Amino acid sequence: MNGRILAMDKTIHEQVQTLLPWFVIDKLTGEELELVNRHLHVCEECQSDFTWQCKLQATPPNDETELNVDSAYAKLLPRLIPT
Question: Is residue 19 classed as helix, strand or coil in its secondary structure?
């Protein structure tokens, strides 16, 4: 990874939560990769998150869904503007 993602005022758990999506797609190197690997060995919550993110990453997009911005906006608008 070219830039550092870690913020030093976060706990290790919070840092790993931030890095986990990058870990799942194999984009971490160096200290960040080591940190996530070490933490995953001891944190059941992050292990569960990792498993879920891997399943999410492996799920193919739904080809049947037609993306129509105008239709989606029309459905959402009544929920945004109270009557």
Answer: helix
